[in-house]
Design goal:
- The protein has about 425 residues and is mostly beta strands.
- It is built from 3 helices and 27 strands.
């Protein structure tokens, strides 16, 4: 090992002295290793992070020490190849709402944006139970008070990636969807926590809408185990062209539960196939701030009502089969619908539901204006809801299974 070399910040003055605002370079086990130190005082750390990516992002290791809090004041899209990221510390997004609204990366799907995007292959990220991202989302929740406006950036997006492993990692106070995969192959996630809590929201008001926990789109072979979500929207959302997604041991604390969809919003193939959510176990509530989580720490899966906003346990939602005028920003004010494809080989198993409004639901009328009901072009087949236990809120009637809509252009079959 050679002696560390500190760049882009304060140099070491004595052995063991604290390093501030720089990148330390070493070689460990034959791999280039860059250790990034935060500037402090809410000074933008993105330039140092990108310097580490340039030097160690291909065939190297990047380290964020546990005692460091990095200020993310500008967008970034690092590209990696064969990298190990030892993410012990925390990244905190700035609360400069105007900057993020006007400068985040645009995402065409549902007119969203991203602040941090990872691209590349052979990427290993370990948060060691202490590392992750703080999106500073409470500033957004309070400013918008339940009415989402354009420009909120997703804090953790994977775009065009393969062979990815992420473990023992958190995303708290996300500005929008917590963790989103857009075009990913062979990905594994374990011990992931996503928590969106609006500290200023009146009781019973959902100010954390659009803070999904874990979303997939254009993916193949994705495994998610030991997942905890607290928020006000989809716990997990399987979006268009998601294939071979396996989920085991998860918690949904508030929000809409497990979702397949929405699908068919755009004029394209919007299929989702081979989705398996089973033994989706829940951690004890105190584990919300305790990572890593292990199977021994978990109890049987529960969907728990939180702040009067637990709407669904598991559901499938597709759009109508025609272009219909839309006014929401998520449709960019343009006509949407008319997508096609299949929703098949879906398994929801071993759910313990505590107080959700609905147990299971299948709906094919998203985007309808009252005149296009029954036109969905999405074929729903081979769907199983197995071993659902617990109780519902009674708001929609205490039935384990209800609201299976057979109005679509294609009949649904093989639904159990």
């Amino acid at each position: 090992m050679r002696s560390p070399n500190i760049i882009a910040g304060a140099a070491l003055t004595t052995a063991g002295a604290a390093i501030a605002g720089g990148v330390s370079h070493t070689v460990v086990g034959g791999r280039k290793t860059c250790t990034v130190y935060a500037n402090g005082n809410q000074t933008n750390d993105v330039p140092n992070i990108l310097s580490a990516v340039q030097d160690c992002g291909s065939g190297g290791t990047i380290v964020f020490p546990e005692d460091q809090d990095y200020w993310i004041a500008t967008k970034l899209n690092p590209v990696f190849n064969d990298v190990v990221i030892e993410w012990h510390g925390q990244w905190t997004f700035s609360a400069d709402l105007a900057y993020w609204r006007n400068n985040s990366y645009p995402i065409a799907f549902q007119n969203h944006h991203a602040g941090f995007i990872i691209t590349g292959d052979h990427i290993t990220i370990d948060g060691y139970g202490t590392g992750g991202i703080n999106g500073n989302g409470d500033a957004w929740y309070t400013a918008e008070a339940g009415n989402t406006q354009p420009g909120r950036p997703m804090p953790f997006v994977f775009w065009n990636v393969s062979d990815v492993t992420v473990s023992n990692f958190f995303v708290k106070q996300p500005q929008l969807w917590s963790l989103n995969i857009m075009n990913g192959t062979d990905m594994s996630f374990d011990n992931i926590l996503c928590n969106a809590t609006a500290t200023q929201a009146p009781y019973g008001k959902n100010w954390v809408q659009n803070t999904d926990g874990f979303d997939t789109m254009d993916v193949y072979n994705v495994n998610l185990t030991n997942f905890y979500y607290q928020g006000g929207d989809d716990c997990i959302a399987i979006k268009p062209r998601s294939y071979n997604v396996y989920v085991q041991n998860a918690t949904c604390h508030g929000g809409n539960g497990m979702a397949i969809g929405s699908l068919g919003q755009y004029l394209e193939d919007s299929s989702a196939e081979n989705i398996y959510m089973t033994d989706v176990n829940v951690s004890i509530f105190l584990l919300i701030f305790s990572l890593p989580m292990t199977v021994d720490d978990l109890i049987r899966y529960q969907i728990i009502r939180y702040n009067n906003d637990m709407e669904n346990a598991a559901y499938i939602k597709t759009w109508v089969g025609a272009l219909v005028p839309q006014s929401s920003y998520e449709s960019a004010g343009l006509p949407r619908g008319g997508g096609w494809g299949s929703v098949r080989n879906i398994m929801f198993a071993n759910f313990n539901v505590q107080g959700a409004d609905l147990g299971v639901a299948i709906s094919e009328d998203s985007g309808d204006n009252g005149t296009f009901r029954g036109t969905s072009l999405m074929e729903v087949a081979n769907v199983a809801f197995v071993n659902f236990t617990g109780y519902l809120s009674g708001k929609e009637g205490n039935k384990t299974k209800r609201n299976v809509d057979n109005s679509g252009e294609f009949d649904k079959y093989g639904i159990e």
